[in-house]
Amino acid sequence: MAGDIKIHIQNFGLRYSDGTESLHDITLDIYARQINVLFGPAGGGKSTLLRAMNRLNDLTDVVEQTGHILLDGEDITRPGYDIVRLRRRVGIVFARPVVLPMSIYRNITYGLELAGIRDKATLDAAVTRSLQQSALWEEVHDRLGDPAHALSGGQQQRLCLARVLALQPEVILLDEPTSGLDPISTAKIETTMQELKSDYTFVIVPHSVQQAARVADWASFFLQGELIEHGVGREMFLKPKHTRTEDYITGRFG
Amino acid sequence: MTDQHEGQPKRSLSWVEFLIERAIQVSGISAIILVVLIFLFLIKEGTPAFMEVPLSGLFATRWYPIEGYYGLLPLIMGSLIVTIGAAVVSLPLGLATAIFIAEIAPDWVRNILKPFVEVLAGIPSVVIGFIGMLVFAPLIRVTLDIPTGLTAFTGVLLLAWMALPTVVSVAEDVLDAVPKTYRDAGLALGMTRWQVIWRIVLPAGRSGVLMALMLGVGRAIGETMTVMMVTGNAARMPVGLRDFFMPVRTMTATIAAEMGEVAHGSPHYHVLFAVGLTLFVITFAVNIAAASVVFRQVKRAERMLA
Questions:
Q1: Which domain holds residue B21?
Q2: Which structural domain, as residue segments, surrounds residue A69?
């Protein structure tokens, strides 16, 4: 089932300014139109790697970055690369929902307006489509003008997903998107991913091993900044090759 | 009560506790009492003015106490012009500086700029007035080719300069407090740095920025020494745009200049207190407005948590 390679990470390493090494010599392929799971105990560098894929680490105190990340064969880590364009191709949903202080409708259209889309009908269509895709439409379609802050945590998170979907990126990064959510909202987001993966490439840092096992087409196990094991999700969770992976999956540590 | 409490090991300790509690209570209440006393004193000394001088006389455009003209309007207008002018100048400037320090400047520049701005706040107003008299006033007189450099405009510039550190410092703190997650969310949507600042950080810190302006205005309206030194102190009624480049006299400068020479208990004396009362009311109103802004902010924060 190894499809096209969407993102190729080559000998990627990263060190923060306080001297801690977050990622060490990672080489990994992210497959197109699959759910790629990065999992492992906290502090393993999963989120850092995720954020490196749309260069959000640029704002933090990164002292040293080595290696390359290629998106469709193009090096996104090279200086001078158009970051704004990159971020429209690679969207991200954070662990805690960050809705912008405006209406539900505007939260979704905002990114599109920035991209220069002004046509009301196009915007309306995008709002409807993305809210339906993120399984939020039923709950909010009659109150799109309400402030987004009035939504519940689970709804806010699905709104964040809708906001990313509206931009129709190629890759969607999810950083523990369901960590603060109830099981029902979690299930909705997982179902959404499954439905959408024929069009999008997902990279997700799950908030539990169980979630990793549920959604992974491809899985990568990270431990203290190193990639321990990478393979087809089903195989890894049934028969891990490395003892450390097995220890983690079976709950011996972590 | 405390004696029965099991957690109290010794009686002496509960006494210490009692004394500390009372001491804190007394100092807290005394601050309030002081403010109330000042207010009462102002009313006591100021209200006779309204008996001695008819209202039409107070709301006249001529301030010439020796001749018995007590029109407060030129003083109020003078204060308003200088204060509003200072606010108008210092807000964009202060906001731009705050944005630069908080969002754009690299760390080492920020580490130099921030303390510098705070030092600027510590310059005594008489020194600023001095610089205004010797440097700004002649410069303004020559460049604008007007009879004197001691004008409302000069006062506006210097007051803006004085309000600037307050505006910058508070606004910078506010912008700095806007959660990083907001910025990340904006960037992740493909916004440029400027769009993030303009569309996300500023609206998110809107009420705090307003608060910064209010504090700056508060600083400007109560300022005495600088305006006394550079605004020329002619109590003329400003009517047109031209008067912006003419001398004015503010309420604070009037009180400072005349209080020392006035006969105790005379109408002039009472009117000066009435001026003080007016100033008090205006400052109070500005503070209430600022407080309500902050209050709204707190309420919104609570909503976000809920």
A1: 2-46
A2: 5-249
* Residue of B176, B189, B198, B207 to mutate, interface with A, max A Cβ within 10 Å: B189
CB contact under 8 A, B188 and A167: no
Q: How far is residue A233 from each of residues A115, A221, B72, measured CA to CA in Å? A: 36, 10, 82
Q: Is there a domain that residue A11 lies in? A: yes
Say what the ipTM of the complex is: 0.71
CB-based contact A114 B181, cutoff 8 Å: no
The DSSP result for B46-94, as a single string, is HTHHHHHS-HHHHTSS-EEGGGTEE--HHHHHHHHHHHHHHHHHHHHHH
Q: What is the CATH number of the domain that holds B163?
A: 1.10.3720.10
Q: How far apart are CA B286 and CA B289, in angstroms?
A: 5
Check whether residue B110 and residue B247 sit in a common domain: yes
Cβ atoms of A217 and A202 closer than 8 Å: no
Residue A254 lies in a domain: no
Q: pLDDT tens digits for B15-41?
A: 888 899 999 999 999 999 998 999 899
> Model-level pTM greater than 0.90?
no
Q: Could B195 and A98 be called an inter-chain contact, meaning their C-beta atoms sit closer than 8 Å?
A: no
